[in-house]
Amino acid sequence: MNTTDFLTISAAICPERDCLVFEGQRQSFLRTNERANRLANALAGLGIGKNDIVAILQVNCPQYIEAYFAIARLGAIMVPLNFRAKQEELVYMLGNAGAKALLVGSRYIETMRAMLPRLSAIQHIIAIDDGQPDMLCYEELICSGAADEVFTDIGDDDVTVLMYTAGTTGRPKGVPLRHSGFVSYVLQNVDPASPEIEERNLLTVPLYHVAGLQAMLAAVYGGRTLVLMKQFETTEWLKTVEQERVSRAMLVPTMLKWVIDHPDFCRCDLSSLRVLTYGAAPMPFEVIKKAIAVMPRVKFINAFGQTETASTITALGPEDHVIEGGPDVVEKKLKRLAMSIGRPLPDVEVRIVDESGQEVPQGETGEIVARGPRVMSGYWRDEQKTAQVIDAEGWLHTRDMGWVDDEGYIYLAGRKDDMIIRGGENISPEEVEDVVCAHPKIEEAAVVGVPDPEWGQQPVAFVILKKGETATTEEIIESCRARLSFKRPRDVVFVESLPRNPMGKVLKKQLREQYVQMSR
Q1: Over the stretch 267-316, which tens digit does the pLDDT of each residue have?
Q2: pLDDT tens-digit profile of 373-399?
Q3: Which end of the chain is more exposed for a tag (fewer CB within 10 A), N or C?
Q4: What's the rounded Cα separation, in Å, for the pair 238 and 50?
Protein backbone atom coordinates (compact mmCIF):
# COMPACT_ATOMS: atom_id res chain seq x y z
CA MET A 1 0.00 0.00 0.00
CA ASN A 2 1.09 3.59 -0.64
CA THR A 3 -0.48 6.90 0.36
CA THR A 4 -2.35 7.27 -2.94
CA ASP A 5 -4.56 4.35 -1.87
CA PHE A 6 -5.87 6.31 1.13
CA LEU A 7 -8.12 8.53 -1.00
CA THR A 8 -9.07 5.74 -3.42
CA ILE A 9 -10.26 3.48 -0.58
CA SER A 10 -12.26 6.18 1.23
CA ALA A 11 -13.86 7.34 -2.02
CA ALA A 12 -15.03 3.76 -2.58
CA ILE A 13 -16.34 3.24 0.98
CA CYS A 14 -18.02 6.60 1.64
CA PRO A 15 -18.20 8.36 -1.76
CA GLU A 16 -20.86 10.96 -0.91
CA ARG A 17 -19.49 11.90 2.51
CA ASP A 18 -17.90 15.33 2.76
CA CYS A 19 -14.16 14.97 2.35
CA LEU A 20 -13.33 18.68 2.49
CA VAL A 21 -15.07 21.65 4.08
CA PHE A 22 -13.54 25.06 3.43
CA GLU A 23 -15.03 28.52 3.80
CA GLY A 24 -18.60 27.28 3.37
CA GLN A 25 -17.84 25.02 0.40
CA ARG A 26 -18.14 21.21 0.64
CA GLN A 27 -16.64 18.51 -1.52
CA SER A 28 -17.25 14.77 -1.31
CA PHE A 29 -14.65 12.02 -1.26
CA LEU A 30 -15.79 10.93 -4.73
CA ARG A 31 -15.41 14.45 -6.12
CA THR A 32 -12.03 14.96 -4.47
CA ASN A 33 -10.78 11.68 -5.91
CA GLU A 34 -12.01 12.62 -9.37
CA ARG A 35 -10.36 16.06 -9.25
CA ALA A 36 -7.09 14.53 -8.07
CA ASN A 37 -7.19 12.13 -11.04
CA ARG A 38 -7.95 14.94 -13.48
CA LEU A 39 -5.08 17.03 -12.11
CA ALA A 40 -2.70 14.04 -12.25
CA ASN A 41 -3.55 13.41 -15.91
CA ALA A 42 -3.17 17.10 -16.74
CA LEU A 43 0.23 17.25 -15.01
CA ALA A 44 1.29 14.12 -16.90
CA GLY A 45 0.39 15.98 -20.09
CA LEU A 46 2.85 18.68 -19.06
CA GLY A 47 5.59 16.09 -18.79
CA ILE A 48 5.48 15.58 -15.01
CA GLY A 49 6.37 11.99 -14.19
CA LYS A 50 7.99 9.75 -11.63
CA ASN A 51 10.51 11.43 -9.30
CA ASP A 52 9.87 14.88 -10.76
CA ILE A 53 9.64 17.64 -8.17
CA VAL A 54 6.49 19.75 -7.89
CA ALA A 55 6.44 22.51 -5.25
CA ILE A 56 3.46 24.33 -3.75
CA LEU A 57 3.36 27.71 -2.03
CA GLN A 58 -0.05 28.31 -0.50
CA VAL A 59 -1.99 28.34 2.77
CA ASN A 60 -4.25 25.39 3.65
CA CYS A 61 -6.98 24.90 1.04
CA PRO A 62 -8.73 22.02 -0.81
CA GLN A 63 -6.43 22.41 -3.84
CA TYR A 64 -3.45 21.64 -1.62
CA ILE A 65 -4.86 18.21 -0.80
CA GLU A 66 -5.95 17.51 -4.38
CA ALA A 67 -2.47 18.44 -5.54
CA TYR A 68 -0.80 16.11 -3.06
CA PHE A 69 -2.72 13.07 -4.30
CA ALA A 70 -2.33 14.07 -7.94
CA ILE A 71 1.44 14.45 -7.61
CA ALA A 72 1.76 11.27 -5.57
CA ARG A 73 -0.20 9.24 -8.13
CA LEU A 74 2.35 10.17 -10.77
CA GLY A 75 5.15 8.93 -8.53
CA ALA A 76 6.35 12.54 -8.41
CA ILE A 77 7.49 14.32 -5.24
CA MET A 78 5.70 17.25 -3.63
CA VAL A 79 7.63 20.05 -1.93
CA PRO A 80 5.32 21.96 0.47
CA LEU A 81 6.94 25.38 0.91
CA ASN A 82 6.74 27.41 4.10
CA PHE A 83 4.70 30.46 3.11
CA ARG A 84 6.37 32.40 5.92
CA ALA A 85 9.85 31.79 4.51
CA LYS A 86 11.91 34.68 3.22
CA GLN A 87 12.53 35.08 -0.50
CA GLU A 88 16.16 33.93 -0.21
CA GLU A 89 15.06 30.77 1.59
CA LEU A 90 12.41 30.02 -1.04
CA VAL A 91 14.94 30.43 -3.85
CA TYR A 92 17.32 28.08 -2.07
CA MET A 93 14.67 25.43 -1.39
CA LEU A 94 13.33 25.44 -4.95
CA GLY A 95 16.83 25.28 -6.39
CA ASN A 96 18.04 22.62 -3.97
CA ALA A 97 14.98 20.47 -4.65
CA GLY A 98 15.26 20.88 -8.42
CA ALA A 99 11.61 21.82 -8.79
CA LYS A 100 10.18 21.32 -12.28
CA ALA A 101 6.77 22.85 -11.57
CA LEU A 102 5.29 25.18 -8.97
CA LEU A 103 1.72 25.70 -7.79
CA VAL A 104 1.27 29.13 -6.20
CA GLY A 105 -1.52 30.93 -4.36
CA SER A 106 -2.55 34.46 -5.31
CA ARG A 107 -1.00 36.17 -2.30
CA TYR A 108 2.46 34.81 -3.27
CA ILE A 109 2.40 35.41 -7.02
CA GLU A 110 4.35 38.68 -6.95
CA THR A 111 6.96 37.07 -4.72
CA MET A 112 7.33 34.24 -7.24
CA ARG A 113 7.61 36.64 -10.17
CA ALA A 114 10.46 38.39 -8.39
CA MET A 115 12.25 35.07 -7.91
CA LEU A 116 11.73 33.61 -11.37
CA PRO A 117 14.93 34.95 -12.96
CA ARG A 118 16.86 32.84 -10.43
CA LEU A 119 14.78 29.68 -10.94
CA SER A 120 15.69 28.51 -14.42
CA ALA A 121 14.81 24.84 -13.71
CA ILE A 122 11.09 25.59 -13.24
CA GLN A 123 9.21 24.81 -16.44
CA HIS A 124 5.61 25.34 -15.32
CA ILE A 125 3.96 27.75 -12.88
CA ILE A 126 0.34 27.07 -12.00
CA ALA A 127 -1.83 29.76 -10.42
CA ILE A 128 -4.11 28.08 -7.87
CA ASP A 129 -6.68 30.81 -7.25
CA ASP A 130 -6.94 33.33 -10.08
CA GLY A 131 -6.01 33.20 -13.74
CA GLN A 132 -2.72 34.89 -14.62
CA PRO A 133 -1.71 35.75 -18.20
CA ASP A 134 1.80 34.32 -17.76
CA MET A 135 0.83 31.21 -15.81
CA LEU A 136 -1.19 28.03 -16.19
CA CYS A 137 -4.58 28.01 -14.47
CA TYR A 138 -5.29 25.31 -11.89
CA GLU A 139 -9.01 24.97 -12.68
CA GLU A 140 -8.36 24.86 -16.41
CA LEU A 141 -5.93 22.01 -15.84
CA ILE A 142 -8.58 20.17 -13.81
CA CYS A 143 -11.11 20.62 -16.61
CA SER A 144 -8.66 19.48 -19.28
CA GLY A 145 -7.53 16.31 -17.51
CA ALA A 146 -9.22 12.94 -17.89
CA ALA A 147 -10.99 11.47 -14.85
CA ASP A 148 -9.36 8.06 -15.39
CA GLU A 149 -7.43 6.51 -12.53
CA VAL A 150 -3.69 7.04 -12.81
CA PHE A 151 -1.52 3.96 -12.35
CA THR A 152 2.18 4.32 -11.61
CA ASP A 153 4.64 1.77 -10.32
CA ILE A 154 5.25 3.21 -6.84
CA GLY A 155 7.51 1.38 -4.41
CA ASP A 156 7.00 1.50 -0.65
CA ASP A 157 10.34 3.25 -0.23
CA ASP A 158 9.76 5.81 -2.96
CA VAL A 159 9.83 9.41 -1.74
CA THR A 160 6.45 11.15 -1.77
CA VAL A 161 7.24 14.43 -0.01
CA LEU A 162 10.37 16.54 0.28
CA MET A 163 9.89 18.72 3.32
CA TYR A 164 12.30 21.47 4.37
CA THR A 165 13.03 21.99 8.03
CA ALA A 166 12.79 25.53 9.33
CA GLY A 167 16.09 25.55 11.21
CA THR A 168 17.12 28.54 13.32
CA THR A 169 20.66 28.44 11.94
CA GLY A 170 21.99 27.73 8.46
CA ARG A 171 20.01 26.91 5.37
CA PRO A 172 16.86 24.76 5.48
CA LYS A 173 17.54 21.03 5.16
CA GLY A 174 15.51 18.86 2.78
CA VAL A 175 13.93 15.81 4.41
CA PRO A 176 12.73 13.16 1.93
CA LEU A 177 9.76 11.26 3.37
CA ARG A 178 8.74 7.89 1.95
CA HIS A 179 5.29 6.45 1.28
CA SER A 180 6.14 3.64 3.71
CA GLY A 181 6.76 6.12 6.52
CA PHE A 182 3.26 7.58 6.40
CA VAL A 183 1.63 4.20 5.70
CA SER A 184 3.37 2.65 8.70
CA TYR A 185 2.03 5.34 11.04
CA VAL A 186 -1.49 5.45 9.62
CA LEU A 187 -2.08 1.68 9.57
CA GLN A 188 -0.87 1.40 13.18
CA ASN A 189 -2.92 4.29 14.56
CA VAL A 190 -6.00 4.94 12.41
CA ASP A 191 -9.09 2.81 11.75
CA PRO A 192 -9.98 2.64 8.04
CA ALA A 193 -12.99 4.48 6.63
CA SER A 194 -16.36 3.08 7.63
CA PRO A 195 -19.78 3.88 6.13
CA GLU A 196 -21.26 3.88 9.66
CA ILE A 197 -18.73 6.05 11.52
CA GLU A 198 -18.46 9.75 10.74
CA GLU A 199 -15.88 12.09 12.27
CA ARG A 200 -14.95 15.67 11.51
CA ASN A 201 -11.32 16.70 11.77
CA LEU A 202 -10.43 20.41 12.07
CA LEU A 203 -7.04 21.11 10.46
CA THR A 204 -5.33 24.40 11.25
CA VAL A 205 -1.71 23.23 11.35
CA PRO A 206 -0.11 24.28 8.04
CA LEU A 207 0.33 21.55 5.46
CA TYR A 208 3.97 22.54 4.94
CA HIS A 209 4.53 21.17 8.46
CA VAL A 210 4.88 17.40 8.89
CA ALA A 211 2.22 17.36 11.63
CA GLY A 212 -0.29 18.95 9.25
CA LEU A 213 0.53 16.52 6.45
CA GLN A 214 0.33 13.51 8.77
CA ALA A 215 -3.03 14.71 10.12
CA MET A 216 -4.37 15.15 6.58
CA LEU A 217 -3.34 11.67 5.46
CA ALA A 218 -4.72 10.08 8.63
CA ALA A 219 -8.06 11.84 8.15
CA VAL A 220 -8.38 10.82 4.49
CA TYR A 221 -7.57 7.16 5.24
CA GLY A 222 -10.02 7.19 8.16
CA GLY A 223 -12.83 8.63 6.03
CA ARG A 224 -12.95 11.69 8.28
CA THR A 225 -14.27 14.98 6.97
CA LEU A 226 -11.43 17.51 6.88
CA VAL A 227 -12.58 20.96 7.97
CA LEU A 228 -9.84 23.29 6.77
CA MET A 229 -8.78 26.70 8.05
CA LYS A 230 -6.28 28.76 6.05
CA GLN A 231 -4.51 29.68 9.24
CA PHE A 232 -5.34 29.50 12.92
CA GLU A 233 -7.42 32.29 14.46
CA THR A 234 -8.92 31.73 17.91
CA THR A 235 -12.43 33.15 17.46
CA GLU A 236 -12.80 31.42 14.09
CA TRP A 237 -11.55 28.13 15.56
CA LEU A 238 -14.16 28.21 18.33
CA LYS A 239 -16.90 29.13 15.87
CA THR A 240 -15.87 26.37 13.45
CA VAL A 241 -15.82 23.65 16.11
CA GLU A 242 -19.33 24.69 17.15
CA GLN A 243 -20.84 25.10 13.68
CA GLU A 244 -19.25 22.05 12.03
CA ARG A 245 -19.59 19.80 15.08
CA VAL A 246 -15.88 19.01 14.94
CA SER A 247 -14.84 15.82 16.75
CA ARG A 248 -11.03 15.95 16.36
CA ALA A 249 -8.45 18.71 16.24
CA MET A 250 -4.76 19.40 16.73
CA LEU A 251 -3.28 22.47 18.38
CA VAL A 252 0.17 23.60 19.36
CA PRO A 253 0.41 24.64 23.04
CA THR A 254 0.18 28.36 22.33
CA MET A 255 -3.03 27.84 20.36
CA LEU A 256 -4.56 25.70 23.13
CA LYS A 257 -3.83 28.43 25.66
CA TRP A 258 -5.48 31.05 23.45
CA VAL A 259 -8.53 28.81 23.07
CA ILE A 260 -9.15 28.10 26.77
CA ASP A 261 -8.39 31.71 27.78
CA HIS A 262 -10.64 33.25 25.12
CA PRO A 263 -13.62 35.28 26.45
CA ASP A 264 -16.00 33.28 24.21
CA PHE A 265 -14.73 29.86 25.30
CA CYS A 266 -17.52 29.22 27.81
CA ARG A 267 -20.16 30.59 25.45
CA CYS A 268 -19.32 28.21 22.59
CA ASP A 269 -20.75 24.71 22.30
CA LEU A 270 -17.68 22.50 22.00
CA SER A 271 -19.47 19.34 23.13
CA SER A 272 -18.76 17.57 19.82
CA LEU A 273 -15.00 17.68 20.42
CA ARG A 274 -13.76 14.25 21.48
CA VAL A 275 -10.03 14.07 20.69
CA LEU A 276 -7.49 16.90 20.90
CA THR A 277 -3.88 16.25 19.96
CA TYR A 278 -1.16 18.68 20.92
CA GLY A 279 2.55 18.87 20.23
CA ALA A 280 5.29 20.63 18.19
CA ALA A 281 6.44 22.52 21.30
CA PRO A 282 6.62 21.89 25.07
CA MET A 283 3.24 22.18 26.80
CA PRO A 284 3.19 24.41 29.91
CA PHE A 285 1.82 22.33 32.79
CA GLU A 286 -0.74 24.92 33.90
CA VAL A 287 -2.16 25.12 30.37
CA ILE A 288 -2.82 21.39 29.96
CA LYS A 289 -4.03 21.12 33.54
CA LYS A 290 -6.61 23.85 32.92
CA ALA A 291 -7.56 22.37 29.53
CA ILE A 292 -8.31 19.00 31.13
CA ALA A 293 -10.47 20.72 33.75
CA VAL A 294 -12.49 22.86 31.33
CA MET A 295 -12.87 20.14 28.64
CA PRO A 296 -13.62 17.01 30.68
CA ARG A 297 -15.12 15.06 27.74
CA VAL A 298 -12.04 15.49 25.56
CA LYS A 299 -9.35 12.83 25.19
CA PHE A 300 -5.97 14.55 25.05
CA ILE A 301 -2.92 13.16 23.25
CA ASN A 302 0.58 14.61 23.46
CA ALA A 303 2.34 13.70 20.18
CA PHE A 304 6.13 14.05 19.90
CA GLY A 305 8.22 13.75 16.76
CA GLN A 306 10.01 15.76 14.10
CA THR A 307 10.16 16.15 10.35
CA GLU A 308 12.98 13.60 10.09
CA THR A 309 10.74 10.92 11.68
CA ALA A 310 7.62 11.61 9.56
CA SER A 311 6.10 13.15 12.70
CA THR A 312 4.95 11.22 15.78
CA ILE A 313 7.31 8.68 17.39
CA THR A 314 6.11 8.85 21.01
CA ALA A 315 2.74 9.67 22.53
CA LEU A 316 1.31 10.44 25.95
CA GLY A 317 -2.14 8.94 25.55
CA PRO A 318 -5.62 9.83 26.85
CA GLU A 319 -5.26 7.51 29.86
CA ASP A 320 -2.22 9.52 30.98
CA HIS A 321 -4.34 12.69 31.05
CA VAL A 322 -6.83 11.22 33.56
CA ILE A 323 -5.55 12.35 36.95
CA GLU A 324 -7.15 9.82 39.29
CA GLY A 325 -6.00 7.26 41.87
CA GLY A 326 -4.16 7.24 45.18
CA PRO A 327 -1.68 9.98 46.19
CA ASP A 328 1.33 8.17 44.69
CA VAL A 329 -0.47 7.49 41.40
CA VAL A 330 -1.68 11.09 41.14
CA GLU A 331 1.80 12.42 41.87
CA LYS A 332 3.31 10.20 39.16
CA LYS A 333 0.63 11.19 36.62
CA LEU A 334 1.08 14.89 37.34
CA LYS A 335 4.83 14.55 36.81
CA ARG A 336 4.27 12.78 33.50
CA LEU A 337 1.74 15.37 32.42
CA ALA A 338 4.22 18.14 33.20
CA MET A 339 7.30 16.63 31.59
CA SER A 340 6.75 13.38 29.68
CA ILE A 341 6.28 12.86 25.94
CA GLY A 342 4.95 9.35 26.58
CA ARG A 343 6.12 6.02 25.25
CA PRO A 344 7.37 5.02 21.78
CA LEU A 345 4.83 3.99 19.16
CA PRO A 346 4.99 0.32 18.06
CA ASP A 347 6.71 0.90 14.70
CA VAL A 348 9.73 2.81 16.01
CA GLU A 349 12.65 2.07 18.33
CA VAL A 350 13.66 4.84 20.71
CA ARG A 351 16.72 4.88 22.97
CA ILE A 352 18.54 7.37 25.23
CA VAL A 353 22.28 7.43 24.53
CA ASP A 354 25.45 9.18 25.67
CA GLU A 355 28.01 11.03 23.51
CA SER A 356 29.54 7.73 22.37
CA GLY A 357 26.16 6.29 21.31
CA GLN A 358 25.89 3.89 24.24
CA GLU A 359 22.50 3.51 25.94
CA VAL A 360 22.46 5.25 29.33
CA PRO A 361 21.00 3.71 32.51
CA GLN A 362 17.35 4.33 33.37
CA GLY A 363 16.87 7.81 34.84
CA GLU A 364 20.05 9.29 33.35
CA THR A 365 19.89 12.07 30.77
CA GLY A 366 21.13 11.51 27.24
CA GLU A 367 20.18 12.18 23.63
CA ILE A 368 16.97 10.69 22.20
CA VAL A 369 17.68 8.55 19.11
CA ALA A 370 15.15 6.79 16.90
CA ARG A 371 15.15 4.09 14.25
CA GLY A 372 12.39 2.54 12.14
CA PRO A 373 10.52 2.59 8.82
CA ARG A 374 9.41 6.20 9.26
CA VAL A 375 12.85 7.64 9.92
CA MET A 376 14.43 9.38 6.94
CA SER A 377 17.42 7.73 5.29
CA GLY A 378 19.25 11.04 4.94
CA TYR A 379 18.96 14.71 4.04
CA TRP A 380 18.32 15.61 0.41
CA ARG A 381 21.59 15.97 -1.49
CA ASP A 382 23.62 16.53 1.68
CA GLU A 383 25.82 13.64 2.78
CA GLN A 384 27.72 15.79 5.25
CA LYS A 385 24.66 16.82 7.27
CA THR A 386 23.28 13.28 7.01
CA ALA A 387 26.46 11.87 8.59
CA GLN A 388 26.01 14.29 11.48
CA VAL A 389 22.60 12.91 12.48
CA ILE A 390 22.41 9.28 11.30
CA ASP A 391 24.97 6.84 12.67
CA ALA A 392 26.31 3.62 11.15
CA GLU A 393 23.51 1.56 12.72
CA GLY A 394 20.76 3.74 11.27
CA TRP A 395 19.88 5.63 14.46
CA LEU A 396 18.66 9.18 13.94
CA HIS A 397 20.13 11.53 16.55
CA THR A 398 17.28 13.92 17.26
CA ARG A 399 19.34 16.40 19.33
CA ASP A 400 16.54 16.28 21.89
CA MET A 401 17.76 15.37 25.36
CA GLY A 402 15.73 13.15 27.67
CA TRP A 403 15.55 10.30 30.13
CA VAL A 404 13.29 7.29 30.66
CA ASP A 405 11.52 6.08 33.81
CA ASP A 406 10.90 2.54 35.07
CA GLU A 407 7.71 2.20 32.98
CA GLY A 408 9.23 3.31 29.69
CA TYR A 409 7.93 6.88 29.71
CA ILE A 410 10.33 9.37 28.15
CA TYR A 411 10.89 12.82 29.65
CA LEU A 412 12.32 15.77 27.73
CA ALA A 413 15.34 17.61 29.11
CA GLY A 414 15.74 20.22 26.37
CA ARG A 415 17.52 20.43 23.05
CA LYS A 416 21.12 19.30 22.97
CA ASP A 417 22.17 22.79 21.93
CA ASP A 418 20.04 24.28 24.75
CA MET A 419 21.46 22.13 27.56
CA ILE A 420 23.07 24.39 30.17
CA ILE A 421 26.46 23.28 31.50
CA ARG A 422 27.37 25.11 34.72
CA GLY A 423 30.69 24.18 36.27
CA GLY A 424 30.59 20.80 34.52
CA GLU A 425 27.04 20.04 35.73
CA ASN A 426 24.23 19.59 33.19
CA ILE A 427 21.09 21.65 33.81
CA SER A 428 17.90 20.90 31.92
CA PRO A 429 16.13 24.13 30.87
CA GLU A 430 12.76 22.34 31.09
CA GLU A 431 13.36 21.35 34.71
CA VAL A 432 14.12 24.96 35.66
CA GLU A 433 11.16 26.28 33.64
CA ASP A 434 8.84 23.88 35.45
CA VAL A 435 9.88 25.26 38.83
CA VAL A 436 9.87 28.91 37.72
CA CYS A 437 6.34 28.53 36.29
CA ALA A 438 5.11 27.11 39.59
CA HIS A 439 5.33 30.66 41.00
CA PRO A 440 1.74 31.97 41.27
CA LYS A 441 2.58 35.28 39.58
CA ILE A 442 4.18 33.76 36.47
CA GLU A 443 2.29 33.08 33.25
CA GLU A 444 5.15 31.59 31.22
CA ALA A 445 8.93 31.30 31.28
CA ALA A 446 11.85 30.23 29.09
CA VAL A 447 15.27 29.41 30.53
CA VAL A 448 18.53 29.68 28.58
CA GLY A 449 22.20 29.31 29.35
CA VAL A 450 24.33 32.44 28.98
CA PRO A 451 28.14 32.75 29.05
CA ASP A 452 29.75 33.17 32.48
CA PRO A 453 33.51 33.71 33.01
CA GLU A 454 33.62 31.66 36.23
CA TRP A 455 31.09 28.86 35.68
CA GLY A 456 31.05 28.58 31.88
CA GLN A 457 27.29 29.11 31.73
CA GLN A 458 24.58 30.33 34.07
CA PRO A 459 20.80 29.80 33.72
CA VAL A 460 18.73 32.92 33.05
CA ALA A 461 14.93 33.00 33.07
CA PHE A 462 12.87 35.11 30.67
CA VAL A 463 9.52 35.54 32.41
CA ILE A 464 6.02 36.69 31.44
CA LEU A 465 3.99 37.76 34.47
CA LYS A 466 0.27 37.19 34.78
CA LYS A 467 -1.90 40.20 34.02
CA GLY A 468 -1.82 42.75 36.81
CA GLU A 469 1.07 41.10 38.72
CA THR A 470 4.42 42.59 39.66
CA ALA A 471 7.53 40.81 40.92
CA THR A 472 11.24 41.30 41.46
CA THR A 473 14.20 39.32 40.21
CA GLU A 474 15.16 38.40 43.78
CA GLU A 475 11.65 37.15 44.54
CA ILE A 476 11.64 34.76 41.58
CA ILE A 477 15.14 33.45 42.21
CA GLU A 478 14.45 32.87 45.90
CA SER A 479 11.25 30.94 45.12
CA CYS A 480 13.38 28.46 43.14
CA ARG A 481 16.12 27.96 45.74
CA ALA A 482 14.55 25.11 47.72
CA ARG A 483 13.77 22.94 44.67
CA LEU A 484 16.67 23.79 42.37
CA SER A 485 19.75 24.60 44.49
CA PHE A 486 22.65 25.27 42.05
CA LYS A 487 20.26 24.89 39.06
CA ARG A 488 18.24 27.98 39.98
CA PRO A 489 18.32 30.95 37.58
CA ARG A 490 20.95 33.56 38.35
CA ASP A 491 19.01 36.34 36.66
CA VAL A 492 15.43 37.05 35.59
CA VAL A 493 14.37 39.17 32.62
CA PHE A 494 10.73 40.27 32.57
CA VAL A 495 9.27 40.38 29.04
CA GLU A 496 5.89 40.92 27.40
CA SER A 497 6.26 37.94 25.04
CA LEU A 498 8.67 35.21 23.95
CA PRO A 499 9.97 34.89 20.37
CA ARG A 500 8.53 31.83 18.66
CA ASN A 501 8.63 30.06 15.32
CA PRO A 502 5.34 29.46 13.43
CA MET A 503 4.72 26.19 15.31
CA GLY A 504 5.03 27.83 18.72
CA LYS A 505 8.56 26.76 19.70
CA VAL A 506 10.43 29.37 21.71
CA LEU A 507 13.49 30.63 19.84
CA LYS A 508 16.03 30.33 22.63
CA LYS A 509 18.92 31.36 20.41
CA GLN A 510 17.28 34.78 20.09
CA LEU A 511 16.86 35.01 23.86
CA ARG A 512 20.54 34.18 24.44
CA GLU A 513 21.58 36.82 21.91
CA GLN A 514 19.19 39.33 23.48
CA TYR A 515 20.67 38.76 26.94
CA VAL A 516 24.25 39.10 25.70
CA GLN A 517 23.33 42.41 24.04
CA MET A 518 21.65 43.63 27.24
CA SER A 519 24.71 42.74 29.30
CA ARG A 520 27.19 44.73 27.22
Answers
A1: 999 999 999 999 877 787 888 999 999 999 999 999 999 999 998 999 99
A2: 899 999 999 999 999 999 999 999 998
A3: C
A4: 42
